From TrEMBL:
It comes from Chloroflexus aurantiacus (strain ATCC 29366 / DSM 635 / J-10-fl). The chain crosses the membrane at residues 22-48, 69-88, 148-165. InterPro entries: PTS_IID_sorb. One of its GO terms (cellular component) is membrane. Pfam families: EII-GUT (PF03608). Coiled coil: none annotated. It comes from the Bacteria. This is PTS system, glucitol/sorbitol-specific, IIC subunit. GO terms for biological process: phosphoenolpyruvate-dependent sugar phosphotransferase system. The keyword Transmembrane applies. Keywords: Membrane, Transmembrane, Transmembrane helix.
Amino acid sequence: MEFLVDAAVWFIGLFQKGAETFVGLVTGIVPLVIVLLTAFNALVALIGQERIDKIGEAAGKEGFLYTPLRYLVLPVVSVFVLTNPMAYTMGRFLPERYKPAFYDAAVSFVHPPLGIFPHVNPGELFVWAGIAQGITAGYGSEETAALAVRYLIVGLIVIFIRGLVTERITAFLLARRVAYAA
């Protein structure tokens, strides 16, 4: 009989803990994410969607000078302005041969800015929060902010490298496809 009582207490306790977590989200991160999304939508309205679209068009130009624009600036602007998953739509301005590399860079950047800008990928914010809590247990928010900045910098380096590597792989595979078609 005691087993059933313990099971019932555990069962309702599980839902009570879930409710506590939900209330914490509603009073904590949810308003923050809504305010950040509003701020970035206002920023886009001030800058103008057409100007942001021009960055995408410029990134599709030929030449090595446009590579950082294509695999660093465009993914960062896309993630900050459009957030996940809409950020990937900025690839529409690129020629087909650059789209896989842009997507690789953009999808790799939806996590690194979370510690500083949680609006970019609110669905994954809990992953960041769990990592930050585990790493900075017993430390203050200054250490968490330092971790977030390092995470962001590493993310920028990684997306640029991934964009370059994926562009080369795509070019190789496209050349192979053309060779087989002939």
